[in-house]
TrEMBL record:
Pfam families: ECH_1. InterPro entries: ClpP/crotonase-like_dom_sf, Enoyl-CoA_hyd/isom_CS, Enoyl-CoA_hydra/iso, Enoyl-CoA_hydra_C. This is Enoyl-CoA hydratase. It comes from the Bacteria. It comes from Streptomyces nigrescens. Belongs to the enoyl-CoA hydratase/isomerase family. Signal peptide: none annotated.
Amino acid sequence: MTPTTHDPAPVVRTERIGRTLLITLDRPAARNAVNAAVASQLAAAIDQLEGDAELRAGVLTGAQGTFSAGMDLKAALAGESPEIAGRGFGGLAEAVTTKPLIAAVEGWAMGGGFELALACDLIVAAEDAHFGLPEVTRGLIAAGGGAVRLPKRIPYHLAMELLLTGEPVTGAGAGALGIANRVVPAGRATPVALELAARLAANAPLALAAVKKIARVADGTPEPAAFAAQREEMTALAASADVREGMTAFAERRAPVWQGK
């Protein structure tokens, strides 16, 4: 693995695996809690993913069996901010990304850790993982995307139970609620997420980006406006070399070679 910055003690590491960038939160002594350094280096890792045309998808995970305990409260009390301007908590919660990002969750994903997972497009969870938003038990709210996103992902009353009680659910429970796309045996979250990322990376990059854009636009937008935005994306895709390549490859019964243009 290589650090995302030249910091002598990197707290976020990246590794290229095929066309996927594996991003690992690496503060195991602090259960991968997010402080200013994590936020800065995670934002840099996302920039690496977005800026490299050879990379098609990302997997976000945590070191040594824990995804993230969320905001580093000690660092926050000392005046550190776990937010990046324009990108929100951890440099990711409010970031607009074009490439698929998968959370691979082992152990605890609490508070901001859960919110980082919710900021990803897909979630793979170990069956014994734990997801929770305990902010109300500390006089806070899940302001890193939990209160905004969770009621849109699962039935309202079930989301409100998690938000108002602060009680966690296991990875198996997250799968039953529809929070996790895959529930896997302990220790398998990252390998399965990488397999899923490879499947996504085999698809046309322009189409993947267009799907993400339309999904964002359609969230809370009246259908006529959403369809209008979709038509613009379809017009752009229809003029791309990748669409012609996809059709040609189908006719020639071969795998497409995407150019991202």
